[in-house]
Structures are given as C-alpha cells and as structure tokens.
From TrEMBL:
Annotated Pfam families: UVB_sens_C, UVB_sens_prot
Domain Protein root UVB sensitive/RUS: 125-350
Region spans: Disordered: 29-49, 70-115, 358-377
Stretches assigned to the Root UVB sensitive protein C-terminal domain: 434-550
Protein name (Swiss-Prot/TrEMBL): Uncharacterized protein
Similarity annotation: Belongs to the RUS1 family.
C-alpha cells in the first residue's frame, strides 16, 4: 500500500558514464522518500542515497539458510562517505522489505521461522535425500506417484527375498552380522547418491569410471578378507559400501549413456538389450572364475592358506583389463549436453578465432561489427567443434584443466566477498556495481564480478584474479548460456592484462577497477552480437543448448 516501482538513474563515480540502476521500490511519504531502506533510517530531502537488498540461499533445498546483504550507497552530497554492506544469515524465508502501513507484524514473521531441530527431523529434509535436485520443479508431475509406488514395490520385494533365504541363518548372530554388512553398504550408496545428484547426468563418463575403480577396490578387500578372519565384519562392510556406490553410479550413468544412443525413441529397447548383454557377460565371467578357482584348488584346499602371489596373479590382470575396457568404451559415448568442461572447450575455440584479428591489428573489425555480414557465422561454423570431436578428447579420468588462464567461480556465497575480514570500501563497491550491472550495456539476468586480490604486490603485468558469476532466480537457459559465454570472453581479455607500460604493482585498486570495468563492458557488447549466432551454430553442430549443467542447480541464485 502506498508504493510504486520507479526506475532510478545515476552516474558511476569515476567513470563519467550514465548508468541505469536496477528497478527498486521507492516508498512514498510526505516530504521525503526512501529507497528500499529500513524504517528507522531517515533521509534528507532531495538526496539520492540508495539501498540494494540481495538474497541468496547458502544451504539446503527445503531446510534453507538464507544470507541477506544490504548495500548502502552514499548520496552525492556526502562525498566523504563510502559504500557499506550489512550481512545477515537466517533460516527464515526472506520476504521483501515492507513499507509504512504494512499489516505484517513481528509476531507473524516469527511464526514463519521453524525450530532448527524440527527442520532436521522433518519429512521434507529426509525426502530431499532421495529425490532429484530441484524437486518438484525439475521433474514431471507424475514422477512423485511413480516414486511412491516404486518404493512400496521395492520394500515388498526385499521382504520376500529375505524370507525366502531365512533358512540360511544358523543363528541370530550370523543374521545380525549379515544385516549390518548389507545395511551399511546400502546406506553408503544412499549417502553417495545424495551428494552426487545431477552430476550423473552432466559427467556420466567420469562417474562410470569411478564406479569401476570403486568396484575393483571393493573386490580387492573381499579377496584379502580370508587373511584376517577376525576382521571379517569390518572389511566386508567397507567392501559392501564400495560395491553399493559402484552399482548405484553404474546404473545411473548407464541410463544417461543409453539415452545418447537412441535415434528412434527406443531407449527402452536399448536399455533392455544392455541388460541382456550384461547378464551374458556375467555368465561368461562367472564360468571363467569357476575355472580359475578350480585351478587354484590344486595349490591348496584351504583358502586362508593360499599364497598372496598366486591370488594376485589371477585377480590383477582381469581387474586392470576391467578398468581399461571401461575407459575405452566410455570414449565412444557422445554427450550432447553442456557442462563446464565441454562449454569451456567450445567457447575457447570460438573466442580464440574471434580474437585473432583484434590481436593482430587494431584496425580489424571487432566481432560486434562482423555480425552485419555472414562472415561471423562462417567463421564460427569452421571452429566450433562437434560433440563427437569433444567426446573423443574429453578428460574424465583426471581433473579437467581449463584452457583459460583466469579462473572462474560460479555462484559462490556472495557474503564471503564482503565479509568483515574483507570489508574494504573498494571491494564492497565492486560487488555493488556488479549487482547493479554498471558495466553492462543492458540489463541481464546474471551478474559478473572481476575479483582482483587487494594489496597483492606483484611485478606481473597480467591479471592474477578471477571472474565470479551469479545468475538471477529469473534466469532461463538462454540467460545461463549467454552469461557463461560472457564470463569466458571476459576471462580471455583479462589474460593479457591492462597493458605493457605499467606493471600491476604500480596500479592502484581504482585503476584496476576501471580497467576491468572497461573489459566487462567491451566483452558484453561483443557477447550481445555473437551469442545468438553462436547458439545457432552449436545447435547445427549437434549440441543440446537446452540441457545445461553450468551451475549447481538453481539453489544458490540471487534474488534482488
């Protein structure tokens, strides 16, 4: 009541450029007005002091911890004042600031907050471990009833399986040991799946390879168990944890891989035949194992007395070949979706091509100027790699090494950049300008910060900081891919530093900020001209530009 939205215009200090700040709610009152500020604050008439409120979820899906930051910019009439930032962490659902005349009371706000212990024990917290990331928005509406009945089906099947072998148990102690061993293994698989989440979709090769290594490690533990019969329960439990993690990762990644082979909407047929192939291979492997075991009986009838060398000679060759064959088969899997490594590989090739002329001569046209002709599209079509090409050289055994020299941080906790330990005025102002998109040509659904370490004396002439990007809660797939390309373009520009005349140690923080701001604006202009053509080219090459795994879901996006 008594409020309206107004677009605020201002001028960035030291830049001499007119900027449009984000839309902020202005509260109308008699004789004065305040911009999204607290009731106890008072402003003098005819001032333009502004307040920017930012909210970010820092933990949890349903049991969330929210971090709320309030940036207060000084009025032009107070040149001696600096931008300040206040940080508040709460478990309450954040609500927009309320103006005079609001009917909401402190008692109602307290009712929105839930007790911490109840949150930990709530059904929502428990179910979050078993449901996909982003549930229910990330799945169709019929997923929940399917999952419920599937859970009942599995429970009933487990009961019948247990009862069918109940006569095996000689006594309660043996049954208890077996239950502990299997229970710990299955629990380990559940915890593992909750941590990995959608990475099974974005990096199926990596986690399938890790599953194979984990399975072989568990087999080695089982192989050594007879040597220490007194530690059977502990060794068997650890081995079962590794096996359950491997089985879960293998089944989850197999579904994503089978999807890449389907051309006629025949995923079910491919999955069924994959199961048949696995069963046949298992029968052959079991037969070979029985033959090897029979040969080993000639050495000794007592398995605890078998020498370690013959055991390793029969086990290790097959174990190594198992891992190697998994690696070779994964090289033939082509993943069409974009995660950070694949996107950086594609974007680096495009950016390197578009920056050649600019690096050779300043008289050459920029990518923004080339968009008026078909030259840009033809150049991108020549350098953008296909999914098959990237898949063949994709690194999934070791850690990915980015082709960009400047680091990138995606949606970190924004509070750490303006915390009490680092709350200097230049850094706070840099974060505020990034959130206000001061160096953007137009308003976007993402925010980019060039984070240069303050006070780092170095004689290097290259940029030694990193680029940080956050996405707004309203960001769509097109915004995510444009924002990520913008960050990559900026990283490539920052690699060359501010120039050869002045070393970075001779530059003040203000000069560094002005230079990085100019690079941000220049890269944004080029991104606006290049991104539509780049996305079309990638689609023509076979990339799925709708399935993006460039962020950790949408849980850590900003609300401004």
């Amino acid at each position: 009541a008594g409020t309206k939205w107004k677009h605020v215009s201002g001028t960035a200090a030291g830049s001499g450029k007119r900027i449009d700040l984000i839309q902020q709610r202005r509260l109308l009152s008699t004789g004065s007005e305040s911009v999204n500020t607290k009731p106890e604050q008072t402003r003098k008439k005819n001032t333009l002091s502004t307040t920017l409120n930012v909210r970010q979820r820092t933990s949890g899906s349903w049991r969330s911890q929210w971090q709320m930051l309030t940036f207060s910019s000084p009025a032009p009439s107070d040149p001696d004042q600096t931008t300040t930032c206040q940080i508040e962490t709460t478990s309450k659902l954040p609500t927009p600031p309320l103006g005079p005349g609001s009917s909401s009371t402190e008692k109602e706000e307290e009712q929105q907050a839930q007790d911490g212990l109840r949150n930990w024990l709530s059904p929502q917290t428990t179910l979050a471990v078993f449901l996909p990331k982003g549930f229910p928005e990330s799945v169709t509406t019929n997923y929940w009833p399917f999952a419920k009945w599937q859970f009942v089906h599995n429970v009933a099947g487990s009961v019948t399986a247990e009862r069918s072998i109940s006569w095996f148990w000689q006594d309660m102690a043996a049954a208890l040991n077996w239950i502990i061993k299997d229970g710990l293994g299955q629990l380990g698989g559940v915890v593992y799946a909750s941590f990995v989440s959608d990475k099974f979709d974005s990096e199926p090769k990596r986690f399938r390879f890790q599953a194979t290594v984990a399975m072989q490690g568990a087999n080695i533990l089982e192989l050594l168990t007879p040597l220490w019969p007194g530690s059977f329960l502990m060794i068997a439990s650890i081995s079962n944890i590794g096996k359950n993690m491997a089985w879960l990762a293998s089944s989850a990644t197999r579904a994503q891989m089978n999807k890449t082979f389907a051309l006629r909407d025949n995923l079910g047929d491919i999955t069924g035949k994959s199961g048949s192939q696995t069963t046949a291979a298992g029968l052959v492997g079991t037969g070979l194992g029985v033959i090897i075991a029979a040969l080993m009986n000639y050495v000794s009838e007592d398995p605890t007395a078998l020498p370690l060398v013959p055991m390793c000679l029969t086990f290790l060759p097959f174990s190594i070949f198992n891992i190697y064959s998994n690696y070779r088969s994964s090289q033939f899997v082509t993943t069409l979706s974009l995660n950070v490594p694949r996107a950086e590989t594609v974007f680096y090739e495009a950016l390197s091509e578009l920056s050649k002329d600019r690096l050779k001569s300043k008289d050459q046209p920029s990518p923004a100027q080339e968009t008026t002709s078909s030259d840009l599209e033809s150049r991108l079509a020549r350098v953008v790699p296909t999914p098959d090409f990237v898949a063949h050289d994709e690194v999934f055994v070791s850690a990915f090494q980015s082709p960009f020299k400047v680091g990138l941080e995606i949606e970190p906790a924004i509070g750490k950049f303006v915390s009490n330990e680092r709350n200097d005025s230049q850094r706070v102002r840099a974060v505020e300008e990034a959130l206000k998109q001061v160096n953007f040509k137009q308003q976007e659904q993402y925010y980019i910060l060039v984070d240069q370490p303050m006070g780092a004396a170095t004689e290097r002439k290259t940029f030694d900081g990193k680029v940080v990007i956050w996405f707004d809660r309203k960001a769509k797939g097109s915004d995510v891919i444009q924002g990520f390309y913008h960050a990559c373009s900026l990283r490539l520009k920052l690699e060359h530093g501010p120039g050869e005349q002045t070393s970075s140690s001779e530059k003040s923080g203000t000069e560094w900020g002005a230079w990085s701001g100019a690079m941000t604006q220049e890269s944004h202009e080029e991104v606006l001209a290049v991104t539509p053509t780049l996305v079309r080219t990638m689609g023509a090459k076979g990339w799925d530009t709708e399935s993006l795994f460039l962020t950790d879901g949408d849980g850590y996006r900003l609300q401004i």
